[in-house]
Amino acid sequence: MINVALLSRWHVHADDYAKQAENNDHISTKLVWDEQQERGEQWAKELSVPFEADLDVVLRRNDIDAVIVNTPTNLHKEVILAAAENGKHIFTEKVLAFTLSDCEEIYKAVEKANIQLMVSLPRLTENYYLYAQEVLDQGLLGNLTTIRCRLAHNGAVPLNEESSGWLPQHFFNKEQCGGGALVDLGAHPIYLTNRLAGKAVSVFGHLQNTLGLEVDDNAVVLVEYESGVLGTLETGFLSKSSPFQLELYGTEGTLLIEESNIRLKSSLMSDQVGWFKPEQLPPALPMPIQQWTDSIRKNGEPSIQKEDVLGLTIINEAAALSNKEGRRISVTELKSTLQHS
């Protein structure tokens, strides 16, 4: 059994991960810590576990094997490095950290401690992504030229005069979040497109503050990849009823995914008339928290890899710099700047 401490209820998915841990036969939740004591005490009461106000005490406990981190993102580095120093396996909400250099520092600590780190990138386990990868691997689109991926909701749209939307107010706190729609919701289009297109070469981003918040609430990022693919990544907190969309265009075909509506047209499918709609998709992979427990228990190799995590932060960091300076940012330039900083 993997004994787990829940670290913070700050993130909107904290309750989801607590539930996933409860439903996992190999996880036992032992206690709660939170940077806000009142919130942590309430959560611990709901979960019928003790609350511990001192993070150092939590991490020094020999009966705690692992932690699930849902702190403000600006605390990720501090908390995760402390957990690694104490030999605790780590599951964390995305993004891992604000900068590539911070991510690399974390991975060095994790590798030194010989522990398992999992960053939750759940859409890499979904059947529609696996189908898209299968279509690419079979060459049905010819040479892939363009990917468009959009994920948006209306979490910042005012519900009444006192509210900016259903997202918690701290999701618009630049210091805690490091950004807005792109760093949070836009993570999913970023890591999906990165996985399908390969390594990024350059990034041009426009991050818009439509409602005058501290952070962006609407964003579009254009990414050029080594493979020659152009990726258009769209996200925002201002769109009601906006469906998830993943579109792949190639020299021999097109794959369109809009929620559960999936259509493929390829000149390489000789018997095809009109759009092909798959009747069955590949089985989904285990969710990130299950892959994490498997890697701890069996030393299994998770499908979500370090490159996915680093690639996510690279795009976010480059897009923010591009928006600030109003120009295209090359990934080589970004890495070179970090090496000399």
Task: Kindly report the average pLDDT value.
Answer: 95
**What is the name of the CATH superfamily of the largest domain?**
Dihydrodipicolinate Reductase, domain 2
Q: Label the overall shape.
A: globular
Number of helices: 12
CATH architecture field of the largest domain = 2-Layer Sandwich
Low-confidence stretches: none
Protein structure class? alpha/beta
Largest sheet data: 8 strands, mixed
How many strand units? 13
The percent range for helix content is 25-40%
- What's the CATH topology name of the largest domain? Dihydrodipicolinate Reductase, domain 2
The overall number of domains is 2
Give the helices and strands as they follow along the chain. Answer: EHEHHEHEHEHEHHHEEEEEEHHEH
Spatial order of the strands forming the largest sheet:
12-11-10-6-9-8-7-13
CATH class of the largest domain: Alpha Beta
Q: Report the span from N to C terminus.
A: 43 Å
Oligomeric organization of the protein chains: single chain
